[in-house]
TrEMBL record:
<dbReference type="Pfam" id="PF01509">
    <property type="entry name" value="TruB_N"/>
</dbReference>
<dbReference type="InterPro" id="IPR015947">
    <property type="entry name" value="PUA-like_sf"/>
</dbReference>
<keyword id="KW-0819">tRNA processing</keyword>
<protein>
    <recommendedName>
        <fullName>tRNA pseudouridine synthase B</fullName>
        <ecNumber>5.4.99.25</ecNumber>
    </recommendedName>
</protein>
<dbReference type="GO" id="GO:1990481">
    <property type="term" value="P:mRNA pseudouridine synthesis"/>
</dbReference>
<feature type="domain" description="tRNA pseudouridylate synthase B C-terminal">
    <location>
        <begin position="187"/>
        <end position="229"/>
    </location>
</feature>
<comment type="function">
    <text>Responsible for synthesis of pseudouridine from uracil-55 in the psi GC loop of transfer RNAs.</text>
</comment>
<feature type="domain" description="tRNA pseudouridine synthase II TruB subfamily 2 C-terminal">
    <location>
        <begin position="242"/>
        <end position="297"/>
    </location>
</feature>
<dbReference type="InterPro" id="IPR036974">
    <property type="entry name" value="PUA_sf"/>
</dbReference>
<feature type="active site" description="Nucleophile">
    <location>
        <position position="49"/>
    </location>
</feature>
<dbReference type="InterPro" id="IPR014780">
    <property type="entry name" value="tRNA_psdUridine_synth_TruB"/>
</dbReference>
<dbReference type="InterPro" id="IPR020103">
    <property type="entry name" value="PsdUridine_synth_cat_dom_sf"/>
</dbReference>
<dbReference type="InterPro" id="IPR032819">
    <property type="entry name" value="TruB_C"/>
</dbReference>
<feature type="domain" description="Pseudouridine synthase II N-terminal">
    <location>
        <begin position="35"/>
        <end position="186"/>
    </location>
</feature>
<comment type="similarity">
    <text>Belongs to the pseudouridine synthase TruB family. Type 1 subfamily.</text>
</comment>
<dbReference type="GO" id="GO:0003723">
    <property type="term" value="F:RNA binding"/>
</dbReference>
<keyword id="KW-0413">Isomerase</keyword>
């Protein structure tokens, strides 16, 4: 009996917008989608904690080269913050390490606290985070009992809006909608809001509603993807996020081989370059009057 494997046709390159379930790591989702899509070339843009649900952008085949650029886009979240308790992870997955009554916190004080955390701010990431400290992930050091010293870094919270306030004795649950820059920790916002109010605080639920232009209306559950693996073509994915530049056949040939083009003043970030037939050729950036290739998608 022959043991030769049947070679599967690789899927088209593109993005899969997943509605991640609670309890799954982002790596779990990637592993599942490798089986669904039938390829090892799968990656994700912007990790979601296991507790969190919502939009996870996954790249398939050549689209994995887009992920580092997509991860830098604006994100949106719906969150619930519990005031009156602090945990060692700044979320509900950790152990409660302090309890201070929030019963006397007035709504006006709460809204002022949220306003203080809106706009350009300096934020210290959670101890249990994936940031590397001396070459090792902070969460590994923290879980080994080490006190990890993380530096504050600039992030931008463009919107932090309270949508509901619920009081439960000494505790307050605050529902909020947040729009923020890449690298912002919603757990840290919960921690810092509690600290500012003198009650402590942690995150009890988190749902990512948007990554750049990709929102929940475009997302599919893993069950839905198992039945029909919807892949957003790379050309559509790039055109939705980055400025577009259409080139001639001659320019397309040059770009395909890593050639440079004169700048057109399209911006400082990535630019999608498309051939006369509408095919995505490359991501480039403008620098010093010319373009420089970030990723080339044709061979």
């Amino acid at each position: 009996m022959s043991t030769a494997r049947v070679k599967r046709t690789p899927p088209p390159s593109g993005l899969i917008i997943v509605d991640k379930p609670a309890g799954w790591t982002s790596h779990d989702v990637v592993a599942k989608l490798r089986g669904i899509a039938g390829t090892r070339k799968v990656g994700h843009a912007g990790t979601l904690d296991p507790m969190a649900t919502g939009v996870l952008v996954v790249g398939v085949e050549k689209a994995t080269r887009l992920l580092g650029h997509l991860a830098l886009t604006q994100k949106g979240y719906d969150a619930t913050i519990r005031l009156g308790q602090s945990t060692n992870t700044d979320d509900a997955e950790g152990e409660i390490i302090a309890t201070l009554s929030a019963a006397d916190v007035a709504e006006e004080s709460l809204r002022k606290g949220v306003a203080t955390l809106t706009g350009p701010i300096m934020q210290i990431p959670p101890q249990v985070s994936a940031i590397k400290v001396n070459g090792e992930r902070a969460y590994k050091r923290a879980r080994a009992g080490e006190e990890v010293e993380l530096k504050s870094r600039p992030v931008t919270v463009s919107a932090f809006e309270i949508t509901d306030i619920r009081r439960h004795g000494d505790l307050i649950d605050v529902d909020a909608s947040v729009s923020c820059s890449s690298g912002t920790y919603i757990r840290a916002l919960a921690r810092d809001l509690g600290a500012d109010l003198g009650t402590g605080g942690h995150l009890t639920s988190l749902r990512r509603t948007r990554v750049g232009p990709y929102d929940l209306s475009m997302a599919h559950t893993l069950e839905e993807l198992s039945a029909d693996c919807v892949i957003l073509p790379m050309a559509d994915a790039v055109a939705a996020v980055f400025p577009r530049r259409d080139v001639t056949a001659e320019e397309a040939s040059s770009v395909a081989h890593g050639g440079r083009l004169p700048s057109l003043g399209l911006g400082s970030g990535p630019i999608g370059v498309f051939g006369p037939d509408g095919m995505l050729l490359a991501l480039v950036e403008e620098h010093g009057g010319i373009t420089k290739s970030l990723a080339v998608f044709v061979s």
